[in-house]
Amino acid sequence: MFIARQPIFNVDLEVYGYELLFRLNSQSSQFGGISSQGATAAVLTGLYEAGIENIIEDKRAFINFDEIFIHSDALELIKPDQMVVEMLEKIKIDDSLIERIRSIREKGYRIALDDFEEAFQSYPLSPLADIIKYDLMATPLATVASDAAAALAQGKVLLAEKVETRDEFLQACDMGFTLFQGYFFSKPVIAGQSVNKSPTKFQYFRLIEELKKEDPSYDALAELIQQDVTLAYRVMRMASVRSNHDLVSSIRYALTYMGLNEIERWFNILMLQDLGQEKPAELMKIALIRSRFAQTLAKRALMTYNAQHGAAMMGLFSVLDGILDQTMDEALAGIALPPAIPDALIKGEGVLYPIYQLMLAYEKGDWATTLKRSQELKIEEYILYHDYREAIAWANEIILNIA
């Protein structure tokens, strides 16, 4: 079973929930090889057994239902405050369906109409819906203005899906949309060709440059870290956590305890966090999930240890353009990286590029590419969900430790 998630944001770019995208196996059709209700049942059961909070944390899961599975008691495995019930756009409407939706709404579940293209005022499910989702690819904002206004007048929440640019986000905000889904938040807003010259970036570059030397000096690293009290505190805190809170007596001791590769990873994580303070927190989380997921994929593909370490850095830096509002070429300039990383992120080639493609395909629920790349890399498909879920858990732990 594959389960990926896509964030849904509020107007403040805080995560409101995650739409869960799923597929049962490589023989599956869009909904799972047997039926849409069978696939949804498998997902709900899997989420219940694995602990849905491990996938959606303290947010809400948006899950698709059809007219058959909506009647199953399995729906109620997930608590009302953890799930939004999405009614598919091609759903068959009858009295039985309407009565069932009324029933689950009375139990506290919120109802969303997915990929809504109907006339709002006359559609039979409009009065029962809490959230109306408009796919901006299929229904551009200009075409839904009057229906959106009517929905707002009736107290509905509007969700814009497939928002690809900041301009679309701002336009949707002006129209009264309050929930947003798409990749606009992770794309750079580039104004001119100015290069970010923040002291934070160059301080980290100096640390990474030292780490890339043939014989890095722990004394030189410690001296650089001690120039920044916040960074020194974080290094000591991280080493303390890693040592199970044994005494960590100095910056140099902390560095030698952690080891060079682990130090480099932490510096990269801290750099992204510091540089991304004005960006949605979810962007940092995605970087961490990608880092862990890509490293695990490289390990599954039996790549060398150095390639696995490079895959982790590639995943982490894959959002750097969005964080710095630069092109990826500009964002990576000045960072001493193994060539395989810019090859994958900028040129779309090299040994790490298949890992990059698989990572992104899984994240977006592009199951055809996921299966193709996993087969090419000789990674068993069934293990991807486990690895992705573990990456989410790891990212959450890291964020707690660097907060």
UniProtKB/TrEMBL annotation:
Residue ranges annotated for the HDOD domain, each copy included: 197-383
Native source organism of the sequence: Acetobacterium wieringae
Protein name, per record: EAL domain-containing protein
Domain of life: Bacteria
PANTHER family xrefs: CYCLIC DI-GMP PHOSPHODIESTERASE CDGJ, PTHR33525
Pfam family, one: HDOD
EAL domain boundaries: 1-202
